[in-house]
């Protein structure tokens, strides 16, 4: 058990490194790490992931803000509808999902299986987002109406609540193509949204789950240390190449999760 916990803390350091290096992908590693290595069920794992990613993104927001790469006005505009959706989905939607969703003869689709498969699908989308090179010249010249931002925030917030992901890989392209924000500033702005969404979503879990605070806080602290190291090393590593490599890695993990859950 001690060896497993040690591996878990090493994994937390890697989670932080990834966040520090590419500005996202923390939940992509955190949830499988908690489920397959440390043995937590997906509901608890996604809850813990929200806290780890939220606290880590808060540190990242501060670092990006010092460089002038956070648009707080736009960030809060996205956050308002999104954090409502995250909180409500964690507080009411996730607990209301039945343990067995549907049965086909001897095969049953359980709640835990459905959450992990849905998470894997989100990972596939994330991997495509990281592998595909985006061009700032493709973004629109005008900002979208707020009602579209509101609807989009609700949709992404619900996804965030279901899978325990920060949603950064969804917000970055949204901020670039619809809010007309440059890529670097979109990454920084997405962190403030991820921070608010994740931590408020976690509040919904506090009311329904028994939280192992000592483990969660220590895991998060190590992840934050990883972020600091990741930001330092990011000066020496090309971000675009790193994102593509991590995108391929994410794709392989997603395929593994689907295979493991279906079989």
Automatic annotation (TrEMBL):
PANTHER family: MEMBRANE TRANSPORTER PROTEIN MJ0441-RELATED, MEMBRANE TRANSPORTER PROTEIN YJNA-RELATED. The chain crosses the membrane at residues 7-37, 43-62, 74-93, 113-131, 151-174, 213-233, 245-262. This is Probable membrane transporter protein. It is found in: Cell membrane; Membrane. It comes from the Bacteria. Coiled coil: none annotated. Belongs to the 4-toluene sulfonate uptake permease (TSUP) (TC 2.A.102) family. Its main location: membrane. The keyword Ligase does not apply. It is a multi-pass membrane protein. Keywords: Cell membrane, Membrane, Transmembrane, Transmembrane helix.
């Amino acid at each position: 058990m001690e060896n497993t916990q040690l591996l878990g803390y090493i994994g937390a350091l890697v989670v932080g490194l990834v966040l520090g290096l590419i500005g996202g992908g923390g939940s992509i590693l955190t949830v499988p790490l908690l489920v397959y290595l440390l043995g937590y069920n997906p509901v608890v794992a996604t809850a813990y992931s929200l806290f780890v990613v939220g606290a880590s993104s808060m540190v990242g927001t501060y670092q990006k803000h010092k460089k002038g790469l956070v648009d707080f006005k736009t960030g809060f505009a996205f956050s308002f509808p999104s954090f409502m959706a995250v909180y409500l989905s964690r507080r009411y939607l996730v607990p209301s999902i039945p343990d067995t969703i549907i049965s086909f003869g001897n095969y049953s689709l359980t709640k835990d299986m459905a959450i992990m498969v849905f998470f894997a699908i989100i990972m596939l989308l994330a991997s495509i987002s990281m592998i595909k090179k985006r061009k700032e010249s493709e973004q629109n010249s005008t900002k979208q109406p707020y009602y579209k931002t509101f609807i989009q925030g609700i949709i992404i917030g619900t996804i965030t609540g279901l899978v325990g992901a920060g949603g950064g890989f969804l917000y970055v392209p949204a901020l670039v193509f619809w809010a007309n924000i440059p890529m670097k500033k979109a990454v920084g702005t997405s962190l403030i949204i991820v921070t608010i969404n994740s931590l408020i979503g976690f509040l919904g879990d506090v009311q329904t789950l028994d939280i192992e605070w000592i483990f969660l806080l220590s895991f998060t602290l190590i992840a934050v240390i990883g972020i600091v190291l990741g930001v330092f090393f990011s000066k020496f590593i090309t971000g675009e190449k790193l994102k593509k490599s991590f995108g391929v890695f994410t794709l392989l993990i997603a395929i593994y999760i689907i295979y493991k859950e279906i079989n």
